[in-house]
Amino acid sequence: MRVILMAVLCASVLAGCKKDDSKAGALNVAIDYSGFTRGCVTVTATDADNAGNTNSLAVAIPGKTPGTVSVAVYRKKDWGRVLSVTTQLHEVDCSGPVVGDQQEVKAQVPEEGAQDVTFSVRAIDGDGDGYFSSADAEGVVSGTDCDDRDSAVSPSATEVCNGRDDNCALGESDANDKKSWFVDTDGDTYGSSQVAACTQPAGAVDRGGDCNDSDGQVRPDRTEFRCDGQDDNCNGMNDEDFDVGDDCKDELKCSGKVACASTPSQTSCARLPTENPVAWYVDGDGDGSKGQDEGLGCEAPVVGAVTQSEDCDESSVYVRPGLPELCDRLDNNCSNAVDEGCGALAWTTEADVGGAADVTAIALYDEGRKAWLVGTGRLVHYDSTTGETTSFTSPSCTGNWRAVWASASGRVFAVGDEGRMTTRGPDPSDQKCFTLTAPNSNAQTTLYGITGIEQPMDPTVYVVSNDGKAFKWVEPYHADGNLTEFGSSVSDNLRAVWSAGSEDTLLAVGGDDNAKAVAYRYDTASSSWQPDLQGGTFDGQLRGVHFTDGRFAYAAGENGLVLKRSGGVWTSLPTVFESNGTTKAGIRDVLAFSEKGIYVATSEGRILFYDGSAWTTVYPGGAPLSSLDGPKPTRIVAGGTVGTVVSFTAPTPPVP
């Protein structure tokens, strides 16, 4: 192939324009090529004396290999005769990439004829795609084809994700079909920031949509698990499973809206500003007036609750507004005064009641008008309305009796040494008693405490002993098997037992080996006595226990100790001292009608009264006392040594 190149490529000359004699001489530029069939060579002629005189011609490779392409170069008449001729190889075609180094030859154009100028170029295009191999080989032009064995790989190829560099640039990073991956910072298999790559990058996953990539618990495709004002499952909603904003009632039954609580996954009821809780009061003591504080609320906690207290003492049925004032040391009518117009309240002392033997225990019935007295070798019935006493001296009725309880019908139950128990009715014409021994007792067993629970027929009685056992006696009392051990035995010395009228309120008290106060509550579910006061908290063996109702119990004993039980918690009242003001009293029994009306009897023979703040002596003493009983605060009786009976009967107050 031969091409004529004018000093400035003259298209008209190439097209056969009129020959210029000044250009008769020429350079015959021959370019030898091998190793490829497609390409282009740019031939440039430049005046050596004036670089501004230059022109170029792009010469396509003719499509065979090896071969030669020739170009005739003429000078213009105003150019010098020495020309610089350069060649530059292109891949594919004349617009393709320049490859290899530029070659240069300086030659003088002859006056006539032609002078040969030769260039040689060698490049490898093994796959025939027009792009030369980029392999580094001596004497071979290095092209841009990174895989000259595959015509599908070349700089003009479309990069796709197939594990190779199709366009010989940037690997697969410029592939047009890269997959979407998502950076998973918190490791929950869902990512947030999107990245494109042919293969999975380290730390990336194929699932996106994580709206909080710093919390591994927050991700799509899960339930909303925290009420926190945040979108935990990345569905564009916050706390949708927690009913936030719905109507609700809070713990005080005030209207509100469901809101997230401070604890994650929890909700609370945010009270409306228009809802204000108030205090509610109920009738805790059963006297018909409501004064027990049931706490704050926007709704009544129970039917009949009121928002204004109606009772000044919710621990006693003997105190409420509207009751007549009695001479009983209580503010019966809630007037903030006690015993208005009553004057001094007197006690009556009788000695040798039913004989000179000591009274160890006394039990009243018939509104306190009648009583049973027991002691060593004595069982005596006493009628205060007539002053008549009846002693039951039959061998079946005698014993060293330690405690006594009488039912509403007048039936008596006495217990004492060697585990002996007896019962009888009040009829004096029958002198016999029914007596038996507690099961599994012995000569060292002493029955110290007894109480009863009324039944439709005859009562059920409960007894406790010094060896930690309890017994239950049901009617008919003579039948075999009707006196049994009751509940589990304990390791302490039990001295008294009482209830609020049901087995589940039974409470037994006494002392441990260190003379510390103990108490046990009977648990009906497990049929056992459960510790209620243990651990040596209070110093002094308890000798008596009494309930005002199921909410309040009082126990008393040695070292002037008086305890109050409320809500299952034991607390101490002020210590009781003997008359010298320094010796702690030996309390033998306790009787309670109110938190502000508690009596104790002491071994010194005194009876003291607690008004809610302090103890005062209401009976100055004489013979040592051992027992205290009374059905109501207007009738109280105590028993002691040498047949002593101390009684209080409230006088009738004057009419206002």
What does this 3D model show about the protein?
Among the domains are: 2-122, Sandwich (Immunoglobulin-like); 372-381 and 400-626, YVTN repeat-like/Quinoprotein amine dehydrogenase (Methylamine Dehydrogenase, Chain H). By secondary structure, it is mainly β. Strands 1-5-2-8 form a four-stranded mixed beta sheet, with no helix packed on it. It is rod-shaped and about 175 Å long. It holds the Pfam family Cu-binding_MopE. Keywords: Lipoprotein. This is Putative lipoprotein.
Number of strands: 44
Biggest β-sheet: count, sense, barrel? Answer: 4 strands, mixed
Count of individual helical segments: 1
Q: Assign an overall shape.
A: rod-shaped
Average the pLDDT over all residues and give the rounded result: 92
| CATH fold name of one domain | Methylamine Dehydrogenase, Chain H
The CATH architecture of one domain: 7 Propeller
Q: Strand order, main sheet: write it out.
A: 1-5-2-8
- Helix percentage range: under 10%
Which structural class best describes the helix and strand composition? mainly beta
What ranges have pLDDT less than 50 throughout 5 or more consecutive residues? Answer: 1-23
Q: Measured on Cα atoms, how large is the radius of gyration?
A: 59 Å
Termini separation comes to 150 Å
